[in-house]
């Protein structure tokens, strides 16, 4: 195992630890993020030092299309931090009137929280870069996919054992920690399928020359199947609803790419199946219904009634420019009436985007997710082999996009690390291959 592999392993180990730490008031998001920044900085330095010249050029080509998309939130968050005539939040006009003097009037109501949010986004970009740089090597990519599959299956197993035993260490069903573990289980459905495809493809290419036996195939496929069943059980039996739809949609996206490739790349078939799948997803969400009179951003949220009502009132007051990145907890608390259980925060990721970045932000984010998923699927269909990396990343993007309407787990550090590692792996392996 190389030093770069150890760096990835350390980040994978951080996923459940950060998922638990996010839900502990004594630790807090900022303390956990500071430790993660140090780990990512060291990991990025280690991985960068291990890159060969050819791998550096390949990495640049793989990441180039997503750089403009990644900079959009950065630019808008910076704009929120500076005074822009006509865009300042009304709270600053009230403050100036009360003080009888002019005040620094940016878009955000809390510049400190917005700076932290900007650092969090830059940290996510560094994680994607670290993952992509480490997995540009074909051997490390295979090892990373196996590690991610094991980690997500382990977190799903924790959910299963937690609920079967009646334990409470994951907190409330609507809490941050439980949401993070549920999201990991949903992503695990996709990564387990991808690992099974990896095993089968390796058997196809190595069996004839005696490099992989049928027994080894059965053993590794059995592990993938166990991981898949645990993740499906955790999401389907103990959570269900929109989380099950998100997991199945991600799995269907992955399966669609595999089917199209196996049938010789018949694009029209892929579009037909994708359209049919989209119809099924929409019908399933319509059947769930959620809170029908609520905004779409929180319609499928599962939170305390007091927080749900406060979020509904807040979303109704949201402006086109938002209240500033990272400010949801502070703003939402002013809308809550009485004590509300759980740590403060948005009910869903989509709601947080609308509140903090403006009413158009969720739709722009979904469009960006669709572009990235399309880029990954295109890369997977063009690969001669090893297409499962990009296909799995595309499936995970779909899972996270749908899950963003259920909870705000993607804003937590644990799920963020997991999502960034999967995305970096998919982007790195969407073009050609490199092997030591």
Search tags:
single chain, transmembrane, transmembrane helix, membrane
Task: Write up this protein.
This protein has 436 residues and is mostly helical. The chain has one domain (3-428). 72% of the residues lie in helices and 0% in strands. The protein has 17 helices and no strands. Helix 1 runs antiparallel to helix 8, helix 10 (241-262) runs antiparallel to helix 16 (388-403) and helix 12 crosses helix 13. It is globular and about 85 Å long. 46% of the residues are buried. Keywords: Membrane, Transmembrane, Transmembrane helix. The chain crosses the membrane at residues 33-51, 63-82, 115-136, 143-160, 180-200, 221-238, 244-260, 267-288, 360-381, 388-405, 411-428.
Secondary structure blueprint with pairings:
Blueprint: H1 3-22, H2 28-50, H3 53-63, H4 67-81, H5 90-99, H6 111-135, H7 138-165, H8 176-206, H9 214-236, H10 241-262, H11 267-288, H12 305-317, H13 328-335, H14 349-357, H15 361-382, H16 388-403, H17 413-428
Helix pairs in contact: 1-2, 1-7, 1-8, 1-17, 2-6, 4-6, 6-17, 7-8, 7-9, 7-17, 8-9, 8-10, 8-16, 10-11, 10-16, 12-13, 15-16, 16-17
Transmembrane segments: 33-51, 63-82, 115-136, 143-160, 180-200, 221-238, 244-260, 267-288, 360-381, 388-405, 411-428
Keywords: Membrane, Transmembrane, Transmembrane helix
């Amino acid at each position: 195992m190389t030093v770069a592999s150890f760096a990835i392993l350390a980040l994978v180990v951080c996923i459940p630890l950060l998922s638990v730490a996010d839900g502990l008031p004594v630790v807090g998001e900022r303390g956990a993020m500071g430790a993660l920044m140090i780990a990512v900085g060291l990991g990025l330095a280690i991985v960068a030092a291990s890159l060969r010249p050819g791998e550096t050029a390949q990495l640049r080509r793989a990441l180039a299309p997503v750089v403009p998309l990644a900079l959009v939130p950065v630019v808008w968050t910076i704009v929120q931090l500076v005074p822009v005539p006509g865009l300042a939040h009304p709270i600053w006009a009230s403050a100036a009137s009360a003080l009888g003097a002019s005040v620094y009037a940016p878009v955000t109501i809390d510049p400190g929280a917005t700076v932290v949010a900007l650092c969090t986004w830059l940290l996510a970009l560094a994680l994607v870069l670290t993952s992509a740089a480490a997995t540009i090597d074909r051997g490390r990519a295979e090892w990373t996919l196996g590690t991610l599959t094991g980690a997500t299956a382990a977190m799903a197993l924790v959910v299963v054992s937690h609920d079967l035993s009646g334990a409470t260490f994951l907190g409330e069903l609507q809490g941050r920690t439980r949401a993070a573990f549920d999201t990991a289980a949903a992503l695990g459905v996709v990564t387990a399928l991808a690992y099974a495809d990896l095993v089968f493809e390796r058997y196809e290419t190595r069996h004839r020359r005696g490099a992989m036996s049928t027994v080894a195939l059965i053993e590794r496929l059995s592990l993938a199947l166990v991981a898949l069943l645990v993740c499906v059980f955790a999401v389907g039996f103990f959570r269900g609803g929109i989380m099950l739809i998100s997991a199945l949609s991600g799995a269907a996206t992955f399966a669609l790419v595999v089917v199209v490739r196996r049938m010789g790349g018949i694009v029209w078939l892929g579009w037909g199946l994708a359209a049919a799948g989209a119809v099924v997803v929409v019908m399933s969400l319509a059947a769930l219904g959620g809170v029908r009179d609520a905004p779409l951003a929180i319609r499928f949220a599962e939170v305390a009634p007091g927080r749900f009502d406060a979020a509904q009132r807040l979303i109704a007051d949201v402006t086109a420019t938002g209240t500033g990145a990272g400010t949801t907890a502070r703003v939402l608390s002013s809308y809550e009436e009485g004590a509300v259980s759980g740590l403060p925060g948005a009910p869903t990721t989509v709601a947080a985007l609308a509140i903090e970045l403006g009413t158009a932000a969720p739709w722009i984010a979904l469009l960006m997710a669709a572009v990235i998923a399309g880029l990954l699927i295109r890369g997977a269909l063009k690969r001669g082999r090893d297409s499962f990396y990009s296909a799995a990343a595309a499936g995970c993007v779909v899972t996270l996009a749908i899950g963003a309407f259920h909870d705000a787990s993607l804003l937590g550090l644990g799920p963020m690390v997991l999502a960034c590692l999967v995305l970096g792996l998919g982007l790195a392996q969407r073009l050609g291959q490199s092997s030591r």
